[in-house]
Every structure is written in structure tokens, then in C-alpha cells.
């Protein structure tokens, strides 16, 4: 620790950037930890994800061989709901600061704005990866218990869900990454638009309106195109374990589409944050 | 504690900035020196907060520069160890406790948690530190803001309207604290739109209006200038007194049924003249301007939002 007084006046611009980044990370972690609603939102994410996955697994039956269902995707259906809570959490991580004016204190403590955003993104990604892993594992476990009772049995061509199966492992890891990318998309959007309500509306609109739009469009060519660029539809392609060839986009390519959305949002947010008066 | 003098300064040099067509800063230039409290005064909208935001690198100026200890704020590695600022005491996330608010700030500067407890004590927050800041009164928030400003033990302290929302006890405490910080050799800049708040606090004044400095002077000099050598006379024969005084070349203004304000004749000569002519009088005193009067005089032409002027009363 730096003793106060002796070295204080001499430390102008002579520390390495990584020292600043470490301090900023520590500060952002403390902020997120003490924000009051972080723990609750993460718990809500896990609960909703597992509950919806469990409910879907219970509702879908596989009466015969070749019923065409994707048990892994069914068990992980909850991600489509859990992502909304993650988006809210990520938006609040920065919009709360704009709403209260605390952003000025933050940027006074750490004048390099990109350092602040990078630290926020890192801390957020970490907690989302952790809670996302818990949500995905619990969902798969629930699916493994529920699905055989609905006809997803070896007799109908379905082995019990297990991470030892390559595609299942990919779907599980991909779903966790999907949630992290949703968090980054929301963080970038919120940094750009600042206001919490507008940011949440923008992100949820982007996620849920695309699939609705796809239903409305009659032209099969455009329908296909929309599915390929929709952040949610393309991103969740990573959960598919059957009929991969019939999907509009491959699993990793789909996640790449979502990553592009997230990168674009973060880039826009960074540029505006860097250039704007606060 | 003493502070190396070049580090304990704020230099504002020729700042210009527009918000739309209206110039917010119009060549703002002044220096805040160590070891004294500099009052930063001006009507609402004069550019006090904008200047402070530019100093902190939150806003950019179109022209000019602001230096803290000789360098731009944004180049400082651990800026809170160089400058402690309180801009808006209400800029807090309400769900976080006061202690946790200070803790993340400390972490951002690589400061130990021990330092947080020290400034909590110094700001008189005590047991409230573990309560949610959302429930704090404005006075408590000001104290929390002061604690945050002092966290890095900085040689420069800059406070925007720190007296807002303080109760009388708090005002006394704040005055003592500002004097103590200056005595320790720090440069202290305190803004206010009320000159009276700074009357017993500031050593030096930077008075601004319309985005530029209109006076940069010591408090005693400003008072001397504003008093302007006026003498107040209380007499039962004002008409006769005026006649005698006019004969000696003085200018008099009746400021009440039995009072005259005299300019152009010192108090001793006034007494001698009246006594020689047998004019009765009960009191002769040198008019002493308050800082408020001096300030109103200076900013008369720069107040942006003025009510209907009250009729000219006493002078």
C-alpha cells in the first residue's frame, strides 16, 4: 500500500496502465457487489431460467421414435427468459450512474473513460458467466430428470442428457456465453443511450421483436435472412443438437452474429462515452 | 502537513465554451493558490459549475486549458490523491451505504479501507456510515461528499456549493474545516452564489459573471473599495447640515428623515465642520460595506435572471 503523504505528490502518470485497471476493476467489483439489487437479479435469472426450462420439458411429449424434438434445446428454453433479467442487470450497471449523476464521481476517480467501461464489462461478464453456468447446469439436470418421463427414452432414440455428449456440452457452454454476450450488448447500448428505460426497451426490443418480425414476413428468402441476423434467433442456434443442417445458421456462426451485435453496441458506447461531456 | 506549492494549485487559463449560442465560459482565467480559501462567486448561470467540470475533465472547453498541480486532470494516475472534489452531493446510488460508497472510491485509487474509516470520522458521519445513503438528508450527503473529497488526502480541494442544505451547526463545522484545510497548506476553492456564506470563510475571491472573471481580489481589498469612503451622519437638522456640507464641497444624499450619507469629505473633517457651524448631530460613522453589497455592486450588470428591481431605498 502506498503510504499517504510521502509518495502522493510524486505519482503523476508514472504508474503502469495495468495498475490503474486493477484498481478500477476492484472499484467496479465493489460497486456491483454493494449495489443492493445485483444478488437478487442474478438469483432471479437462475430461478426463471430453470423454472421455464423445467416447465417446457414437462409440457413437451415425445410419443414415438422420430418425434423430431431437441431435448437439449427444450431443457435450455429458460435462457430466452433469463436473458431479459441479465439485460436489465447490465443496463442498470451504467444507467443507474447516469440516473443519479454518480457517473461524474466515477469519471472523476478514473478519468480514462475506456478503462471504466472495460472494467465494468469485465466484472459484469464474470458474474454473468458464473450465474449463467449455474442456471444452465441446473436446467440440464432438471431436463435429465423430467424428459424421460415424457417419452424421451432410449426406446425413442434419446439418451439421457449428459455433458459427456459433444453437442450437449457445446449447447451448454454456448448458452452461458450467450448470456455473457447479452450482458455486453446491454452494457454497450446503455452506455450509448444512458437512460435506463430507453436502454432496456432498446435491448428487449432488439431481442424479442426480431423473432416476431420473422413470423410476419411472408417471403421465405427474407425470413431466412432475418433469422440469420436476429441476435436472439442466431445466438440461440448454439443450443441446437438435432437437424443442424435445417437451421438457418450454424451454432458457432450464430453466436458470432450475437458477438458482432455486442461488439457494435460496445464500440458505439465507447465512442460516445469518450467524446461526450458528462 | 505542508504541500509543495506548485502541486497545490489550480490554474484556469482562457477557457471558452458555448452551450448553443450562449457563451457559458468566455475567457475564464484565474489561479487558485495554496494556503488560503478562494471563494468562487457569481450569480446562478455565471459558469461556476461548468468551470469546475472543465477542471475535472468532465466537460471539454473549446479553447483554453485547466491545470491541476501543473498538469491536465485527465493525465493524473490516481487523481483523488491530487484533487478532492464535491460537485453534487446527491449524486449517489441510494441503495448503497455511505461506507460502501467511500470504499469503492478508495479501491479505485488503491487506498486502504482504513482510510475510509478515517474520513468517515473526519466528516462526522459516525454511525450513519452503515446506513443507505438514499435516506440521508442533504446535510448528511454534503458530509459524505466532503468525506469523499478528503479520501485521497489531496493538496487541492474543490467544493461546489458545500453550504447548501447544512444546518447552522453544519455551517460552523464547514467553515472550520475549510479554514483548517487552508491552514494545512492546501489550495481550497469553494463556490457559492451567496456572498454572505463566504464572508467569514474566504481569504480571496474570484467573482464571475457571464462566464468571465469580473474581480479577482482579496476580501479586505474588495470591502475597502466597496465602502468608497462614505460617511453616515445622524442629525436633527438635516437641511442645515446639507447646506454646510455642500459649502465644503461634499455631496449628500438624504437616506432617512434624520440621516445623510456624505461622500467627498472624511469623517473627522465632517465633525469639525459641523461643530464650527453649530449644527447639532448625534452620530457620525464611516459606512462599512458588507461583502454582499460589494458583490451586488460588482455583479449588477451581469445578473441573468433578475426580478423587478425594488425601489431605491436606503443607501
Automatic annotation (TrEMBL), chain A:
Signal peptide: none
Keyword Oxidoreductase appears in the UniProt entry: no
Spans through the membrane: 41-60, 72-94, 114-142, 168-187, 199-217, 252-273
Protein name (record): ABC transporter permease
Origin superkingdom: Bacteria
Alphabetical UniProt keywords: Membrane, Transmembrane, Transmembrane helix
Taxonomic lineage of the native organism: Bacteria, Bacillati, Actinomycetota, Actinomycetes, Kitasatosporales
Species for this entry: Streptomyces fuscichromogenes
Automatic annotation (TrEMBL), chain B:
UniProt cross-references to SMART domains, sorted A to Z: AAA
Stored PROSITE patterns: ABC_TRANSPORTER_1, ABC_TRANSPORTER_2
Pfam families on file: ABC_tran (PF00005)
One Gene Ontology MF term: ATP binding
Record domain ABC transporter: where: 10-235
This protein's record includes keyword Transport: yes
Keyword set, alphabetical order: ATP-binding, Nucleotide-binding, Transport
Tagged with keyword Transport: yes
UniProt xrefs under PANTHER family: ABC TRANSPORTER, ATP-BINDING PROTEIN
Family: Belongs to the ABC transporter superfamily.
Designated name of the protein: ABC transporter ATP-binding protein
